[in-house]
Amino acid sequence: MTAPTVEAAIHELMDLAWNVVYDLLVERGLLGDGLFVEEFTGIHSWLDGPNRYTVVHSRKIAVLFIDTRPVDAIVFHHDLLGADDPKCFFALPGV
Question: Is 10 exposed, middle or buried (0-12, 13-18, 19+ CB in 10 A)?
């Protein structure tokens, strides 16, 4: 992916579900001053069975999406990106 494509993918996911992402950040105590969609600059996506998992992150926060639905948000740390199963860092609904 080129940088503009990555940026477009991040903005599409975040803009599509910003109200739900915002609520997740509030629930997890992660909403800080000056939070903007533009702060989210990283994306990691993979298929696991029929679902696409995507982690969108800033320097401080990571949000997990299942398909296009945000399901959890955590404090970002670099171990997440090198993990065999990045979704294990998050609380998944129904688990």
Answer: buried
Decide: helix, strand or coil at residue 55.
strand
The candidate with the shortest Cα–Cα distance to 24, out of 34, 14, 12, 33, is: 14
Residue 59 DSSP class: S
CA gap 55, 61 in Å, rounded: 10
Confidence (pTM): 0.87
- The residues that bridge with 72 in the sheet, in sequence order, are 64
> Residue 95 and residue 91: Cα distance in Å, rounded?
7
Express each pLDDT in 41-91 by its tens digit: 889 999 999 999 999 998 889 999 999 999 999 999 889 888 988 999 999
Half-sphere exposure of 88 (CA within 13 A, CB side): 7
